[in-house]
Fold this sequence. Notes:
Blueprint: E1 2-6, E2 15-19, E3 29-39, H1 41-48, E4 65-73, E5 85-89, E6 99-103, E7 108-109, H2 116-135, E8 143-147, H3 152-163, E9 168-173, H4 176-184, E10 189-192, E11 205-210, E12 224-232, H5 246-250, E13 257-260, H6 268-283, E14 291-296, H7 300-308, E15 315-319
Parallel strand pairs: 8-9, 8-11, 9-10, 11-12, 12-13, 14-15
Antiparallel strand pairs: 1-2, 3-4, 3-6, 3-15, 4-5, 5-7
Helix pairs in contact: 2-3, 2-6
The structure holds NADP nicotinamide-adenine-dinucleotide phosphate (NAP).
Residues 40-42, 45, 128, 148, 150-154, 172-174, 178, 193, 211-212, 214, 233-237, 261-263, 310 line the site of NADP nicotinamide-adenine-dinucleotide phosphate.
Amino acid sequence: MKAVAIQSFGSPEGLAVIDLPDPSPAGGQVLITTEAIGVAGVDAMVLSGALAAYGYKEGHILGGEIAGTVTAVGDGVDPSWAGQRVWAFTGPGGGYAERAIAPASTLVPLPANVSAVDAVTLGSSGMVAHFGLRHAHFVPGETVLVRGAAGGIGIMAVQLAVRGGAGAVAVTTSSAERGDRLRKLGATHVLDRSGGGGEDAPPAYDVIIDIAAGADLPSFFTKLNPNGRMVAVGAVAGFPAADFGMELFAAFRKSMSFATFSADTVPETDRRAATAELLAAAARGELDALVHEVLPLEQAVMAHRKMKAGEVFGRIVLTPSGS
Ligand SMILES: NC(=O)c1ccc[n+]([C@@H]2O[C@H](COP(=O)([O-])OP(=O)(O)OC[C@H]3O[C@@H](n4cnc5c(N)ncnc54)[C@H](OP(=O)(O)O)[C@@H]3O)[C@@H](O)[C@H]2O)c1
């Protein structure tokens, strides 16, 4: 089968298409013939080498989120999964391939009217956004700012905050055109990080969902209301300065909270249930999957070039040539 592996960390050109024998599922696993493979922000971070300390090595096959058909099941797996079209999470990687292994415990049947491409665009992103908002103790009526809203997780955080009854949903993004697209999803205010817009935005928020982090993160503490909560769910702009916590102490009397959130702390059964509910909501037409572009698996380098250039609004999805 064809797969895409990291030959060298750094740039997108470090990816290469290779031939591998089909993997076979161990106990508790299934083999999936892939139809759609999500290209996530975290894949770009792994490819850059930034997460090497977490055990990622050269030779690694990227790809956590896939959809396709179960073609074999390992020991202990309900045989009725065979032949079913599913959404799945591979775990550490292996998804950029014509066939991939996933734990059976992650499988969600694809609703009939949700495409594989849409499923990998909103499944994992929506789950992270859902639990990120919950981690922030978001309740209806509160004002929300989504920082890094134009990516997979941000787009879902905007839609879920709107659906959850937010009083206002502001976003940061890098162009007026992206701002308009986010307004169509329900965003009420746009803070254009390229310099324009945002004049009418609320001065402060009850909840900030932050996918960007980076050196600018502490400057957003001043945008929290008293008792406001900021939850970092990603770090596409890198990490803040080591002493960033002093800016929280500077506003001690506002009782603000800062937290990180990783879906790794959510029990797998809850993650799977949330993903199933998100796919069902998409099937009912209540959530939009923002697919930037669908590219052949062999063009994973192109996909990552576009990510690196900041061209992607939503998700790029890879499809193997056979599907
Ligand atoms: N918490 C979890 O469990 C979990 C799970 C999966 C992934 N993650 C993390 O989530 C992040 C990826 O999220 P994603 O897939 O939504 O990312 P993404 O698709 O790459 O989008 C991130 C968005 O952030 C904006 N951005 C980029 N650089 C920025 C900067 N310097 N300052 C402000 N905004 C910037 C960009 O939009 P504009 O240019 O329009 O602003 C971009 O579209 C990674 O850090 C990953 O590790 C976390």
